[in-house]
User: What shape does this take?
Amino acid sequence: MNRAVLTAAMILCAGSAVAAPAPVEDIAGGSYDDRVERLERMLKARQQVDFQTQQRLDTLQQEVLDLRGLNEQQAYQIEQMLQRQRQLYDEIANLSSNQSSNTVVAAGSLTAIEAAPTSSSLGETASYEQAVNLVLKERKYEEAIPAFSNFIANYPDSTYAANANYWLGQLLYNKGDFPEAIKAFTTVVNQYKESNKRGDSLVKLGMIAEKSADNANAKGFYQRVVKEYPSSAAARIAKQQLAAL
Assistant: This one.
C-alpha cells in the first residue's frame, strides 16, 4: 500500500514539473530596437510632463505678478486718499483759526483741492490705472502695450515709471517680442536701482537669454538676482532656473 502511494506521488510530481509554466521574460529583454523604442517612449513622456510643469509654473508666476500689480495700485490709491484727507484737515484748521476775511481765501483753496482730479498729478494716476486695468481687469494685453508706452513718454519722472516699464516688458515678453522686452527690463535695471521690480526684471532678462539659447548670460542674470536679492521671491525663481540649466 505504501509503495502504491509513493509511486502515485512520484507520478503527480513529475506531471507538475512538465506542466509548470515557462518563466516570465524580463521586461528589459528584447531586441536592441525594442529597448531603444521603449526608452524613446519614456523620454517623450518625461518631456511632456516637464513641459506641462513649466507651463503651470509660468501661469503661477504670471498670476503672482498680476496680484503684485493690483496690490501696488491699491496701495498707491490709499496713499493718495490719505494725502488728500490731510490736506482737507489742514484747510479746515485754517478756516477755524483765521479771521473771517481770510475765510474766502481758505474756501477757495479748499475748492481747488476738490477740483484736484483735473490736475496733472491725478491725470498721471488715472493714466497709470487705465493701463493697469487693461491688464488686470479687461485682459486687453495688446491695448495695454501702447497705454504703458504712452504713460512712460508722458510721465518719465513718475514714481510709477519703473513699474510701467516692468509691465511693458512683461507684456512684450508674453507676446514674444524679446528685443523690445529687453529694452524695457534693462531700463528698470539700469535707471531704477531702488525699485522693487529690479530683481524681477533681472529674472526676466535671464529667461529671455535662456530662451535665446544664451545660457551663459542667463546664468549671469540669475546669479545677480541671488546675490543682490537673496531673500526675495525673484531669488527663489532664479535658483530654480539655475538648477534647470
The two ends are 79 Å apart (CA to CA). The CA atoms of residues 135 and 141 lie 6 Å apart. The chain is about 80% helix and 0% strand.
